Amino acid sequence: MTAQRIEGKVISDAIRVEIGEETAKLSAQGIQPGLAVVLVGEDAASKVYVGSKEKACQQLGFYSEVHRLSGDASEEELLALIDRLNNQSTIHGILVQLPLPKHINEKAVIDAISPMKDVDGFHPVSVGNLVIGDDSLLPCTPAGVIELIKRTGVSIAGKHAVVIGRSNIVGKPVSMLLLRENATVTICHSRTANMEEIARTADILVVAIGKAKAIGSKFVKPGAVVIDVGINRLETGKLAGDVDYDDVLETAGYVTPVPGGVGPMTITMLMLNTLKAAKQQHA
Ligand code: GUN
After folding, report:
1. 84 and 194 share a domain?
2. Which value does ipTM take for this structure?
3. Does the Cβ of 262 fall within 6 Å of ligand 1?
């Protein structure tokens, strides 16, 4: 049977309608969620992402500030801006777009963001809360992955979830979130032996390795939920995921397309985090 396509864009739009309604209610109480996005330098992909975040804020009635710093801005300058935003009451969420220019210490910058305003969920306090299971701001892409799985109607508890990739941004946090949902979780990575065999035992397979079409049907258990976090630019200029979509289509039960799967969820989860942060800061 052909897999069901998980429509990330449709799901994301539905969640945005809910966020818009919540925001209107909050605004009636005099609270407008506020997001500050900081972009350093001229990275083309980052510029597109930052533009999309700004647009989402406008669409949902959020207050937003975008700070565009030149590529030779100093670390001190960036840290001073973060300090100002940490203390600015109209801003509930701060996001520094990554990657940063090489002369800036990324860890020092992430550590400087107040955990209360860490809508990316990258601060060590947020990561710790994620592992402990406390109600914190969750990293956006992993939270989007969980939401997509839940909306298939397939329950996560008791299932074998295999995550391919162990990055700090996706692989590790998504594994922790799956564990929180009571899955039995296996993490595979570049040094894993028998990856195919392990992946083929997964009821839920999440792939985040950054290699175009690396995962085909021989990695997929019949009927599995396959979530593709990869976005790779092919030589033809087209986008492709880490999963070979056409190849897994006859084996998987559900699969996310690229584009139009996980991608649209990330910014929506950022907006949800900003709304949550605004509520927490006014509680
Ligand atoms: N660059 C690519 N993805 C992300 C993300 O999720 N957050 C930030 N801050 N930068 C990114």
Report:
1. no
2. 0.95
3. no
